[in-house]
Amino acid sequence: MAVLRRFARPLLASKFIRDGYAAVRNPVVPAARGEVGRGPVPAVSRLRLPDDPEQFVRIQGAVRLGAGVLLALGRAPRTASAALAATLVASALTPYVYPKAGDADPEAREAERADLLTDVSLLGGLLIAAADTHGKPSLAHRTRRAAGHASGAVTHRVTTVSDRVGDVADRVGDVADSAVKTVSDSVEAARKRLP
């Protein structure tokens, strides 16, 4: 599986590296199309995003370039995949997906649908890569397992201490019984000697 990851991650990252490099070098702002997507999205409007669309495209390109390189090199692949997925969602929210109201060019609409389908497919691959733990258990699983081991160790120690306390109590009881018997025997012997 490690060999598969070694080849699959750079293949998945290659498009993002190329697109990110192109966006940083020569940012192309997609033209707004139709009325859909022109108004502010409430959740996004609270973010402090640059007002200049060209600068926004460059920032998005830099994120794609950096995260793509990290994914290709296998450094922080889960974080890089999540960052790339976020840039894909951001680009899918842009209004380029929606054709103009009067646009009847079926080839342009088909090309836009193909681009959207490509982005959605890449998003699926990135989500799988973001969830991939490289064959190792997740942090939550390791924490639960460590807690189980700790609980077992504590239970074992408590049982051991309890057994030892029980042994000591038995010995103390035996010594006390022996002492009582010895004292009783001594008292009985003393009574017999008395007139």
Automatic annotation (TrEMBL):
Any one of the GO CC terms: membrane
InterPro entries in alphabetical order: DoxX
UniProt KW Transmembrane keyword: yes
Subcellular compartments: Membrane
Key words, A-Z: Membrane, Transmembrane, Transmembrane helix
A Pfam cross-reference name: DoxX
Its membrane topology: Multi-pass membrane protein
Protein name: DoxX family protein
